[in-house]
Amino acid sequence: MxxxxxxxHTLFNTAQLWQDWLDQLENCGIDRADAVxxxxxxxxxxxxxxxxxxxxxxxxDELDQLVSDFEEYTRQESEQLLYKDVEECIKKWGDEHTFxxxxxxxxxxxxxxxxxxxxxxxxxxxxxxxPERTKATQIAEMLKEIDEPIMFVDDNPRxxxxxxxxxxxxQLVRMRRKGGRHSDEFCKxxxxxxxxxxxxxxxxx
Length: 205
Description:
Elements: E1 2-5, H1 14-27, H2 32-43, H3 49-55, H4 60-81, H5 84-93, E2 98-104, H6 107-116, E3 125-129, H7 135-145, E4 150-154, H8 157-165, E5 171-175, E6 195-197
Parallel strand pairs: 1-2, 1-4, 2-3, 4-5, 5-6
Helix pairs in contact: 1-4, 3-4, 4-6, 7-8
């Protein structure tokens, strides 16, 4: 089996990192509600701290220093933000299965978080989705490239639905981490079209 993992809120506690970033913006005098609203708009096209700060009106040395400090903070904290079951499960499954990450967002920022979390040594491949090249499109491509069954694990039910609507022969799993961005959303497909889990250790392969 080739297991394709989403990254944010599936393998990595992005919710905590987001709150930490909002704290830093508040320290710069940015209203937290404005920062949240602006961030929500960016999540759909590719978020990074730099483009978020820029959109909120931060400029020049202030923006550069803020982003540089937060990048260093991210490098220091990311291993702790990796969910505790991730390394254990991937190592346990490694003799029988292969793995990749398919994450949505700003490519440089996503790669930096994945590297800082220590996942490059555990994962065979990392792919970045964007609005013009969606996760479902890339899953379809992977079916042609990979000579083994595919399982796709994501916290966003809309990503799973997009794969299901294409009729792709892929096992689907919805991750619902405590505090995750989509974890409280009701989906009638839970337990029907896909597994619904709160930890990788609960996943049936």
